[in-house]
Amino acid sequence: MLGTIKHSSSRLCQTTLRLTSRSHSTASSSAFSPDELAHFNALASSWWDANGPSRLLHKMNPLRTSFIFDTIDAYALPSKTRLSGLKMLDVGCGGGILTEALARNPRVESVTGLDMSEQVLEIAKKHKRQDPKLVMEQKLDYKLCSLFDLPVPEAAAEGKDEQRYDVVTMFEVLEHVPDPSALLETATKLVRPGGWIFASTVNRTAAAYLTTIFVGEDLLRMVPKGTHSWSKYINEKELREWFIEHKTSVPGTGEHWDVVTSKGCIYIPFVGWEFCGPRDLGNYFLAARRLS
């Protein structure tokens, strides 16, 4: 969760968002717990099976890509936001389902996928090699490392290109890391002015527990058991307030952000993922834009 957990007598909890002060090495070593890595390593061989354990990710992918590009078009800053030639970073890319889709988009110049699971990343690289166009265009690259291990790119200097990213994606990642606040803070440093962070995660509500864990994992086995932990879910309000507290109202930071949109989404059997329902109930997507 994004900070300190306060438990009430009803055992519902509310997260107070605060930045965790920790060293670079400590943050890097705790980007994912050993249990989380072991869980996703076990899924490596079936990652690209559209009817296998990752099928809900495959079904969610069109909604992810449309959310990214539709949001950029709707909320671009005319003087700062690039609409094409986009440089993207996909954090926690797994086997590359979203990463490949981004690389195939003609508006994208390059995509780097980061993951800490060696087995899963080998599946991503292998699947990339099966598409001659992806190999030939050389737009897609994978790195076996944590976001904390990635050097912070330099801002554009006179006569030099901007090295930071136009878009950083963090889909289905924040609920799996020990310190989401530190991960977000690092991600913001990698985005150029006019650029974006796109994230999706799950609200910490009784309804989300019912649908994602009890029904999704325990009852229907649509998601491998142990994929989610309800206590790590992050409410939409908490994620929104993190940007307000740390990236909007802090004087002298030289960096300002705006959460421009968030949408609730739900999986509808025989239909797929759709944007519908409240954004503070179950799954949701959120887009934050860097203003300066």
From TrEMBL:
Q: Where does Mg(2+) bind?
A: 172, 175-176
| Annotated residues for binding of S-adenosyl-L-methionine | 64, 92, 115, 171
Q: Name one Pfam family in it.
A: Methyltransf_23
Q: What's the cofactor?
A: Mg(2+)
Q: What is its main location?
A: mitochondrion
Q: Where in the cell is it found?
A: Mitochondrion inner membrane
Determine the domain of life of the protein's source.
Answer: Eukaryota
Catalytic activity of the protein: a 3,4-dihydroxy-5-(all-trans-polyprenyl)benzoate + S-adenosyl-L-methionine = a 4-hydroxy-3-methoxy-5-(all-trans-polyprenyl)benzoate + S-adenosyl-L-homocysteine + H(+); a 3-demethylubiquinone + S-adenosyl-L-methionine = a ubiquinone + S-adenosyl-L-homocysteine; a 3-demethylubiquinol + S-adenosyl-L-methionine = a ubiquinol + S-adenosyl-L-homocysteine + H(+)
Which pathway features in its UniProt record?
Answer: Cofactor biosynthesis; ubiquinone biosynthesis
Topology versus the membrane, per the UniProt entry?
Answer: Peripheral membrane protein
Keywords for this entry?
Magnesium, Membrane, Metal-binding, Methyltransferase, Mitochondrion, Mitochondrion inner membrane, S-adenosyl-L-methionine, Transferase, Ubiquinone, Ubiquinone biosynthesis
What Enzyme Commission number(s) apply to this enzyme?
Answer: 2.1.1.-, 2.1.1.114, 2.1.1.64
Name the NCBIfam families for this protein: UbiG
Q: How does it assemble?
A: Component of a multi-subunit COQ enzyme complex, composed of at least COQ3, COQ4, COQ5, COQ6, COQ7 and COQ9.
Family from the record: Belongs to the class I-like SAM-binding methyltransferase superfamily. UbiG/COQ3 family.
Report the function annotation for this chain.
O-methyltransferase required for two non-consecutive steps during ubiquinone biosynthesis. Catalyzes the 2 O-methylation of 3,4-dihydroxy-5-(all-trans-polyprenyl)benzoic acid into 4-hydroxy-3-methoxy-5-(all-trans-polyprenyl)benzoic acid. Also catalyzes the last step of ubiquinone biosynthesis by mediating methylation of 3-demethylubiquinone into ubiquinone. Also able to mediate the methylation of 3-demethylubiquinol into ubiquinol.
Query: What protein name applies here?
Result: Ubiquinone biosynthesis O-methyltransferase, mitochondrial
Source organism of the structure: Myxozyma melibiosi
Gene that this sequence comes from: COQ3
